[in-house]
Amino acid sequence: MNEFQLIKRFFQQPNLAFSNAYLRQGIGDDCATFNIPSEYDLHLSLDTLVEGVHFPFHANPFDIATRSIAVSISDLAAMAAVPIGFTLGITLPSKDEAWLKHFSDGLAQAAEFYQCPLIGGDTTKGPSLVISLQVHGITKAGEGLKRSGAHVGDKVYVSSNLGDGAGALPLVLKEPRLNTGLAEEFYKPIAQIEFSQKIKDHATSCLDVSDGLIQDLNHICTASNVGMNINPDLIPLSQLLVETYGSEQALKYALTGGDDYQLAYTAKHCDHGICIGEVIAGGRVNVLGVDIIEGGFQHF
Ligand code: ADP
Ligand code: MG
Fold first, then answer.
1. What distance in angstroms lies between residue 3's CA and the mean position of ligand 2's atoms?
2. What is the pTM of this model?
């Protein structure tokens, strides 16, 4: 099987490389081509996942695929953009057909779920597995949510439970193929595309929580030149996380762990999501009763 046969067989499948209203040319020419009507903005974001760094060695290829797409599309959700297609750069140590089959099945499932087809890419051989995805999405012109719009007096919201991704990490590092319970949150986070469409007309700023709530909210504070007071008692934690680790460690994961892929946003008022605090003057995030130190935090 040469490179072209590999691309045709595993990446150019109808349930993965499907078309939509914006795609003029998908896989098979020198470039993929979008036709974007002038009343839309095109948003794009690139993520690279390295085996042994962003997911464990020997993880299930189906799970690697679903995780790769979810974490990439999460950036589109953060802008309230609707996905229209992604490209895939993949470096493979070998042409393992069974591995490729499971990987492309995972891609196809996620591509269908997010209605985001594979439109092109590049395939190379190399010493270790590296996956780069560029995702593309659209909003009405000027309506993409940014980190810079928060105002003093706004409230701070999150879309759902935090901490599950960080709580799952020690489990999948110990057992890379575990993909049920908390581990499912690691391999199959749901990018909040649907949720972002509900808040897009209310939110003044937004991002996806990938590096831990405090660090990510600080990005909004910096971009918007505001501060925040967060009430830790209002932070939503899953029952599973609290049962597995106890409430103190669960909150620690929620505040400083990563890999949640929920949205954090500010709004004057919003009926969707969970309010966890308010925007104040200043430049930093304060968490009530918690002493935040460099690279983590102390107390409880
Ligand atoms: P070129 O030599 O012009 O870069 P390639 O031989 O790399 O073209 O790719 C041929 C076609 O297959 C192109 O349309 C490219 O976008 C597509 N392609 C290559 N690798 C992938 C991949 N991993 N996923 C999706 N499409 C791919
Ligand atoms: Mg190429």
1. 10
2. 0.94
